[in-house]
Write a structure and sequence with these properties.
mainly alpha, about 180 residues, about 0% strand, about 75% helix
Amino acid sequence: MAVLMTLVRRRKSPAGAPCDGEILRQLDDSAQRARYWVKRTPRETAHLLRRARLYSIAAASLSVLTGLWAWPVIADTSRLTAQIVLSTLSCLAALAIAAPYATGLHDRIEESIRLSATYGTLYGELLRAHHQFPTHATTPARATELIQQLNDITTHHDAPRPAASAPHSDETSGAHTPSAP
């Protein structure tokens, strides 16, 4: 019975402050959301990198074609046709190189990499706080601060969101873990 009373005992909290059970539930919900993003963000980064590589491959291919076709096109066609064909291929190659920068793809990749690290660190801190909270090694103020950090990051980051967004704390249950498409 003494062990049960120890487990049920709560810290005294000021009026209006969430009780330990509520903070523990919020820590659990936040850890689940952070876990989702820890898994999702690297996949999103890999997808963005594949897209950027496709642009690079297209640019390299167009440049090679332009170089290989330059003299045969000049030799076999009229001067105007050769100029148009080679200029068009050169412009397409330049556009393929510039497209990831013009569309913000490279910026989104860099932000996604930073978010991966941030979510990983925060997920570890949330798990540590969740496990240490019952032993009073983590204070309610620190737990609330970690929860707020996760909320700030998930609501303000500029990385592209997946089709299925992360679950919100009021939509998740203790056993639910979201699956990304």
